[in-house]
Here is the input.
Amino acid sequence: MKSALPGVNLGGWLILERWMTPALFEGTDAVDEYTFMQTKDARAKLRAHQRQFITDEDFRWMSKNGIKLVRIPVGYWIFDGDGPFVPCIGRLDWAFAAAKKYNLQILVSFHGAPGSQNGQDHSGRVGKALWYDSAEHRERSVTTVRQLAERYRDEPAFWGIELLNEPRTKLFQRALKRYYNKAYREVCAVVRPGTRIVYHDAFTPRMLSAAVWDDQCYPVLMDIHWYHFSFAFKKIMPLNWYFRYIVPWHGRLIRRLQLSQGIIIGEWNGIVAGEKLDRYPQIEHPAIVKRHIDVQLKAYRYADAWCYWSYKTQERGVWHFRSLVEDGVISLKNS
Here is the structure.
């Protein structure tokens, strides 16, 4: 039976997200890394966070507990900064050395594009998605992913590169498809054979499947993110019906889409919306969350890889993969 490469995301590390590490933002009104970097002593706080939030011990733990792939979100400012953003390429270099030491693989994910591709905090700046309106922003994005590919092409831990994370959903996506094709060709020109080149589906997997490549020369994987926050799930759909039909349907969709390219579930999580959980006694909540994780793992085994969001957060719980393993909710050692 097919088994996906198990992985985690290092969210909240090289791109800040306030909800993941609220103590870092304490005493500020910052909502993202852009506004955080304009607060008092921000640079020193950021450097300390980057050194302390993910350490050698974390890579050792991942290796010991069944993780094979580490997806690392980065922003366009990683090399040279872009005020108020500051560069952090040294930490990514360090991550590659740690991954090599512990026999892990890295997927570098281009999460923060100039102008922002989605206006979300995980792009570095909350607000408008200006990336779509500027050819200069898109060209700079191509340059950045090529530079990342050039820097790590010979690293044993370099599993692949993701060209853009969660671009805003649009009707036709002509600009996005042109960007994907150009970035793909640029990356192909520098990476070694077998390197995976990943593109996000913009939450429209059927529309973007097999629809963005002029000339495929290296392995292509489409990235799908499944978080179950829809109104129907929270307010209408019976939980057992969801577990029995909807999540298994994801597995069938993965297999169909793989006829055109590889598939990675780059982000997923065991969270069950509070509106749904509140219908059940508190004592039943842990079992519901565990079942949610188990049925997803069963469906996602058909993918080439999956990466849980996220490896850790400030607080333990369903967003904190390591705590789930330590608490016996997830076990990958024998999978």
In short: The chain has a mean pLDDT of 93. The chain has 13 helices and eight strands.
